[in-house]
Amino acid sequence: MPTAIIRLALVAFIAALAVLPAPAAAQDTPLRIAAEPAVPPSVARAFVDALASAGVSAELAPAPADLRLLPHGSDAAPAAQQVLAPAVRMASTLEGITLAELRAVWTGAGKSPAFSRIHVTANTAGALAPLLGAAGPNVKVAAADKLDAAVWADKAGIAVVPFDALTVRLRALKLDGQNPADNRFDASAWPLTHRATVAADTERGRAALEAAKSALPATNRDPSKLTVLVMTGVTAMARHSAVAIDKSGDPAFLARKVGPELAAADITTASNEIPFVAGCVANPSANNLVFCSKPEYWENLALSGVDAVGLSGNHLLDFGRKAALDSLAFYQSKGIPVYGGGANEKAAAEPLIIERNGNRIAFLAANQHGPAVAWAGPDKPGSARFDLAKMQAAIRSLEPEVDLVFAEIQHLETNYQGDYVNVPNDRAEIDFRGLIDAGADVVTGVMAHAPQAVETRKGKLILYGLGNLYFDQTWSWPTRTGLVPRHTIYDGKLLNTELLVTVIDKNFQLRWATPAERAQVLKSIFNVSRW
Predict the structure, then answer these.
(1) Is the peptide bond before 217 cis (omega within 30 degrees of 0)?
(2) pLDDT value of residue 7
(3) Omega prior to 41 cis, within 30 of 0
């Protein structure tokens, strides 16, 4: 064949190859992402996961790459951030620390009167080094599955963990007054956040960033996935507390000092034991055990931001069936759902499901102690009668429908001698643990007029008794105090529980405990708690 013809054939063949599409495998290979050494592996992994959630397959790989992850401070686009949180074992009364203290102990350059050691995982240690400096001898590295035990074994130690690694056993600490478990948290002012940016080096990388922009920056603390839930103890606005409201001329007198803080939660619940009755007259007689509240007293619960009311108490029928039904209608007129009590036994046993910020939470409650007259019947209003097997079955049936189940029990208020104590009776322990074993995430005793012990079981939480909220039992220090658990739920998981402490003043108005009072109350229950 002549040389000229061969040359023409080769030119035609090469031209044909040039217009062929690239092999499919080249398009299907994962996007390559190179992370600079200053970017912690956990932050880089969060970025990869965020791309995957947007349908972009990617992998961490050395340069050259389609995308480069850079330390915070570059001009590139935000890519990912990891919020870290100081934490302490729940049995500690330590409330908060300062950044100066944390840095001093971390580097070994100074000391803190509150703690001496900091427990972290290797990944967290790497993320903290750019934020706090080089780790000194006070920093103790543990495997992730050993960190909880290390902190609990060290009474002078705290931990620093990723926000989403908090648990009910590792409670978040305030840092310079801020707490990442709070829904009022200012992320922009938080010094323990590791941020990374991203730069695109290829057209494919730029296209991937555009496709995934709704999922970026990746974060382990997305406010749209966070719900703060506040639950409260005994409310019975009657007797001396009712007289105090009337005397003050302020229908929200009892809640004036604490209500706004309770209302700051995304969901606030109250356990109101008594009916709202038109024409109710305050009766402060010492032997008066027949209770009602004027409808005007609702303003205390309104100021507290109450979103739902538990009716497992034993005084709903104190003024008869009509008053109980009228009280249920009163809640309905306020747009307030109830649970644990109702117009009949079927309604009383119905769970209440509330969804906030993507977290779906079930509430159910029942009355174990009675008296029998307080229990709802087929055609009679009242509280749901507690039956362990039935409540366990209800919890199991709820689990596929919700993220978390909160169960409440109105149990025996005292020990078997009739005293208000901080140790639950053995029957309560059996019942409360039985609900945890059935799948409840938190079990709360709403009967106790004094704070009671705490227990963690299978990674879940039991609060045996919260004590009083709005009531008049000022005759002893234990009955003047109460616990307000503030639960932080994130992406369907209970991450954190902080126990706030209240005190009923001699004028029957509620206030927050002083630091010394808070520590004393918490120590009194932690010392008898089951950890």
Answers:
(1) yes
(2) 52
(3) no
Q: Give yes or no for a contact between 469 and 233, defined as CB atoms under 8 angstroms apart.
A: yes
Q: What is the CATH number of the domain that holds 307?
A: 3.60.21.10
> What's residue 27's pLDDT?
55
Same domain, 241 and 207: no
Nearest 5 degrees, angle CA 292-CA 293-CA 297? Answer: 175
Question: What are the b/e assignments for 137-157, b being 16+ CB within 10 Å?
Answer: ebbbbbeeeebbebbbebeeb
Q: What is the pLDDT of residues 473-515, one digit of tens each?
A: 999 999 999 999 999 999 999 999 999 999 999 999 999 999 9
Mark whether 449 and 364 lie in a shared domain.
yes
Mean pLDDT for the stretch of residues 302-320: 97
CB-based contact 301:235 (threshold 8 Å)? yes
The position carrying tokens 């109450």 is: 306
- Which helix (H) or strand (E) covers residue 106, if one does? helix 99-107
Distance CA 181, CA 488 (A): 6
For residue 423, pLDDT beyond 70 = yes
pLDDT tens digits for range 203-212: 999 999 999 9
How does pLDDT run across 434-450, given as a tens digit for each residue?
Answer: 999 999 999 999 999 99
Q: Which domain holds residue 320?
A: 224-526
Asked, for residue 444, whether it belongs to a domain, the answer is yes
202 shares a domain with 263: no
Region 154-174: mean pLDDT is 97
Q: Which pLDDT band holds residue 16 (cuts at 50, 70, 90)?
A: very low
Helices and strands: H and E segment counts in the chain: 16, 27
Question: 351: which DSSP letter?
Answer: -
How far is residue 15 from each of residues 1, 11, 22, 516, measured CA to CA in Å? 21, 6, 14, 85
Last residue of a domain, one of 195, 221, 247: 221
- Residue 465 and residue 380 in one domain: yes
The yes-or-no verdict on residue 74 having pLDDT over 80 is: no
Note whether 88 and 161 are same-domain residues. yes
- Domain tally, the chain: 2
Cβ partners under 8 Å of residue 97, min gap 6: 86, 112, 114, 115, 158, 173, 174, 175
Same domain, 211 and 256: no
CA–CA distance, 410 with 445 (Å, rounded to integer):
6
In a domain, 474, yes or no: yes
